[in-house]
Design goal:
By secondary structure, the protein is of the alpha+beta class. It has helices at 2-12, 17-22, 28-40, 53-60, 77-85, 90-101, 107-120, 182-196, 224-233, 249-261, 271-286, 298-306, 390-397, 400-410, 412-422, 430-438, 440-457, 463-472, 481-491, and strands at 137-144, 148-149, 156-157, 160-166, 172-177, 202-205, 212-214, 221-222, 236-239, 322-327, 333-336, 339-342, 351-356, 360-365, 368-374, 381-382. The protein has a five-stranded mixed beta sheet, sandwiched between helices. A four-stranded antiparallel beta sheet has the order 10-13-14-15. A three-stranded mixed beta sheet has the order 11-12-16, with no helix packed on it. Strand 13 and strand 14 (360-365) form a beta hairpin. Helix 6 (90-101) crosses helix 7 and helix 15 packs antiparallel against helix 16 (430-438). The chain starts with a helix and ends in a 13-residue tail after the last helix.
Length: 504
């Protein structure tokens, strides 16, 4: 319409069709046809006002031309449209048409047809660019970091980059870490707040397991440790909806920028060296660049405006603790971070809460504190004897030295028998020694010592022998009478018994 309006103005000024063609606005034939149309409507009269664009379009606008060819797939449009709605890819549609409907055309025809269907679909969603006030929010994310070879140990390990970006100034904190555990997540938050010198009012995060235990569009469940950290520092957690990373596009762009601008062409001696280089780069290069969106230097915007509006850091930093749900095993221990911690045996098979700091571990049943331990290294066991059941406690306390002390208290013959048991070079007779000591509870020390004397006299220092002697009351019988009783047993009858005079 703009071109038509220019030509119409030139015609009203008296220019001929040849003059208009010479100015390259329109060819002579097209100008002549346009002159006939506008002259019939009286638009060439300089006294009449120029028509508006709508009137020109109504008269001069050409209707859309019908397609010059029809696709060979047009008869199958309903079927292809149904497959397209089910998100079946074009190659699969082409294969199905060839196999089921005898289609002879090429895959390009199917691809063009599917593209036309996609172009006719309404827009699925629209986006709105969010604006943030200074100190209102920060966005947090993890990104894949460089693989580092430790020059001291030779170890090669994978790393991650923790990034927190202030939404208004675009100033950011980043740190290279080895994992994405809850402890690492909380420690990175503390160092980021100390880096900024304050706390933003809201943190927009994704749904990592170290922060969100159940991702949900409306009601996400926050990790208990992260909730305590938010309460201690005074910020609110804003978890993005699942599978919607565009809600934190600022930090997503910051992670991409860090990967492209800082990570390439660098070498690191170890993790500490990587973080030193990264922090220098954040202040020297990333902070002083002209940001593509704000068209300002992030560090300058931060220092002049945003720093003073951040929330105040607490005088005493909150203790960073990790909470975990644990189950009591049969041995009255719970496992956390590959270490074992004991709890009272009466809580066996119950689910408890464990709170772990850098130095201590506390275990709760609901709100009741049931156990406290010093945190140990992975693979170690922290056990309180009072937590064990009585039988297990008695077993663990009745070691060989304990048995020897108890036998010496009972009597010299008991002590001698226990010593004989422990002198065996083949078997470990700890259980037998414990059993002999336990016989005192039923029969008393005097009878037990006499039974041990009789067992030693027959050179049979075994637990079963001592127990049988006590059960039959033989501990007080003279030693020689046992042979008489044995002889009487064989001579008191019996069809096939022989006399003792025939025993050689």
């Amino acid at each position: 319409m703009f071109q038509y309006r220019q030509v119409l103005v030139r015609m009203r000024q008296g220019d001929s069709d040849r003059d208009i063609a010479r100015s390259r606005l329109m060819g002579r034939r097209k100008a002549a046809a346009l002159r006939r149309v506008v002259q019939a409507r009286g638009w060439l009269d300089p006294a009449t006002p120029l028509p508006d664009d709508a009137a020109l379009a109504a008269v001069l606008g050409t209707p859309a031309r019908a397609p010059t060819c029809v696709s060979t797939l047009e008869p199958l449009r309903p079927l292809i449209a149904a497959w397209f709605a089910e998100r079946v890819q074009a190659t699969t549609i082409h294969a199905a048409l060839v196999e089921r409907h005898g289609f002879k055309g090429s895959y390009s025809a199917v691809r063009r047809f599917v593209r036309a269907l996609a172009a006719a679909q309404p827009a699925q969603c629209t986006t709105t660019r969010l604006d943030f006030a200074p100190a209102e929010a920060a966005q947090v994310d993890f990104g894949a970091g460089p693989r580092i070879v430790d020059v001291t140990t030779g170890e090669t390990f994978k790393t991650w980059v923790f990034v927190m970006t202030l939404c208004w100034s675009r100033h950011q904190y980043a740190e290279v870490v080895r994992d994405q555990t809850v402890a690492t997540w909380l420690a990175c938050h503390r160092r980021a707040f100390e880096w900024f010198g304050g706390v933003p009012a809201r943190l927009i995060i994704d749904n990592p397991k170290c922060a969100i235990t159940r991702a949900c569009h409306t009601d996400p469940a926050v990790q208990r440790a992260y909730a305590a950290c938010a309460e201690g520092y005074g910020f609110k957690i804003d978890a993005c909806p699942p599978r919607d990373p565009q809600k934190k596009g600022i930090v997503e762009s910051g992670v991409k920028y860090l990967k492209r601008a800082w990570m390439p062409l660098r070498s690191f001696r170890d993790l500490a060296d990587a973080n030193r280089q990264l922090h220098d780069w954040l202040l020297a290069s990333a902070g002083t660049r002209c940001h593509g969106t704000t068209r300002c230097q992030p560090l300058e915007r931060f220092t002049t405006t945003e720093r003073g509006l951040l929330g105040r850091l607490p005088d005493v930093p909150p203790e960073l603790a990790t909470w975990a749900s644990v189950v009591v095993h049969r041995d009255a221990h719970v496992q956390f971070d590959r270490a074992l911690y004991s709890v009272p045996f009466r809580l066996m098979s119950q689910t408890l809460w464990l709170r772990a700091t850098a130095s201590a571990v506390q275990i709760y049943r609901d709100t009741e504190l049931v156990a406290t331990h010093v945190r140990t290294a992975p693979g170690q066991r922290a056990t309180v004897r009072d937590h064990l059941p009585p039988d297990a406690l008695a077993w663990s306390m009745a070691d060989p030295q304990h048995c020897l002390r108890e036998s010496e208290r009972i009597g010299p013959h008991c002590h001698a028998l226990i010593t004989r048991l422990f002198a065996d070079r083949v078997l470990d007779h700890l259980r037998a020694a414990q059993g002999v000591i336990r016989l005192e509870r039923t029969h008393g020390a005097a009878r037990l010592d006499a039974a041990c004397q009789r067992a030693l006299a027959f050179d049979d220092p075994r637990y079963r022998t001592v127990k049988t002697i006590l059960a039959k009351g033989l501990e007080l019988a003279p030693i020689g009478q046992s042979f008489d009783r044995l002889a009487n047993t064989y001579t008191t009858g019996g069809r096939f018994t022989r006399g003792t005079h025939r025993i050689h």
